[in-house]
Write a structure and sequence with these properties.
- This protein is α/β, with parallel strands linked by helices.
- It folds into two domains: 2-189, NAD(P)-binding Rossmann-like Domain (Rossmann fold, 3-Layer(aba) Sandwich); 192-334, N-(1-d-carboxylethyl)-l-norvaline Dehydrogenase, domain 2, CATH 1.10.1040.10.
- It is built from 15 helices and eleven strands.
- Strand 7, helix 4 (106-116) and strand 8 (126-129) form a beta-alpha-beta unit.
- Helix 3 (80-90) crosses helix 4 (106-116) and helix 7 (193-203) crosses helix 14 (312-325).
- The chain is globular, with a radius of gyration of 19 Å.
Length: 354
């Protein structure tokens, strides 16, 4: 197929390399224009995907979409508020788009934007991937290191009935299994990163502030893991209100890293042994807080308010991180105009789809 990848940080180029390694033609576009500098002649991939892969660099969204059979949006969640309106304006109605990860209610927000712009009722579905098909780091402008290729990624869709179709598309592009999630809400709250990253940031804030090197899996100690498990229990209760199953943290780590199932702290220690020192963030402007709290934990609290559900541990963690970082971490423009008590119907049918 012909895939266009929107996003050129680390995950976008890595997913592009993975798709190209499977025989697909890939175009890549950077919202800022900076991310594609240095890859005009192709991308060198190391790690779990090895080789040099030809990528077509698109100068604009229209050029990226031209001739494409599918699109993948792979940007940090904090980029969604500015980027989704641009995509809604340019996305061809027949082009299926996968969002990875589908944090917050990004697929539903995009569908609402497209409906408001008069997109036809029969437009293609929007796929909601619970996480990215790869984990990666950008080593140089023309080189990316693919740390892992995921074995499975839950996939939902807007409208919900298109989930199997969008899962089959993701599998064809990237090779992973695509268990069907019942709605984009499931994909939006299935990612374990907001829970794991928020606790790591909270318990290692002085290391982050002093720009120290610290091994994040090695510091998932039993005490830190207890807090993660308490957050995960509240998330599971929230998901149950919507009839949406979510993976436990142990299953998420198993899928992402291939380590045997067991107590969370023991799994983290095993990852540290097998993967070496995967370093945590070393600056306060880290997505572990700036992305994973507003579009993760604070999003859970927004949903919970609509259901009259208390999440005291989640509330406490968000409040503590706001005090430590000295800023509002609850602002999420994706949710403007959406009703937390009424998202259930929209998740099933989308907006303006008849």
């Amino acid at each position: 197929m012909r895939l266009c990848v929107l996003g050129a940080g680390a995950v976008g180029p890595a997913a592009a390399a993975l798709a190209a390694s499977r025989g697909h033609g890939v175009a890549i576009w950077s919202p800022s224009g900076r991310g594609t500098a240095g890859i005009e002649g192709g991308m060198e991939s190391e790690g779990a995907v090895t080789g040099r892969f030809a990528l077509r660099v698109a100068a604009g969204l229209e050029e990226a979409f031209a001739g494409a059979d599918a699109a993948l949006l792979a940007v940090p969640a904090y980029a969604f508020p500015a980027l989704l309106p641009r995509i809604a304006e340019a996305l061809p109605p027949g082009l299926p788009l996968l969002i990875a990860p589908a944090a917050s209610l990004a697929p539903l927000a995009l569908d609402a934007l497209m409906a408001a712009r008069g997109a036809p009722a029969g437009r293609a579905a929007i796929g909601a991937m619970a996480t990215t098909p790869v984990t990666a780091r950008r080593r140089a402008p023309g080189r990316v290191f693919v740390a892992t290729v995921r074995a499975a990624v839950d996939v939902a869709a807007v409208p919900a009935a298109a989930a199997a179709e969008m899962g089959a598309l993701a599998t064809a592009l990237f090779g992973h299994a695509s268990p069907v999630a019942p709605s984009a809400l499931g994909a939006g709250i299935a990612n374990a990163n907001p829970i794991i990253h928020a606790v790591l940031a909270l318990t290692n804030v002085t290391r982050i502030e002093r720009a120290e090197e610290w091994p994040q899996y090695g510091l998932m100690t039993p005490a830190a893991c207890r807090m993660m498990e308490a957050l995960a229990a509240e998330r599971a209760a929230l998901a149950a209100r919507f009839g949406v199953p979510v993976l436990g943290l142990e299953e998420s780590l198993h899928r992402a890293n291939g380590v045997p199932m067991g107590p969370l702290a023991e799994m983290a220690a095993r990852i540290a042994e097998t993967r070496g020192a995967v370093l945590g963030p070393a600056e306060m402007e880290t997505r572990y807080v700036t992305e994973d709290v507003p579009y993760g934990l604070a999003f859970y609290l927004w949903l919970a308010r609509g259901q009259g559900l208390a999440m005291p541990v989640t509330e406490a963690v968000v409040t503590a991180l706001e005090a430590l970082w000295g800023r509002d971490l609850r602002r999420n423009p994706l949710l403007h105009g959406l009703d937390p008590a009424g998202v259930g119907v929209a998740l099933v049918s989308g907006y303006g789809r008849g």
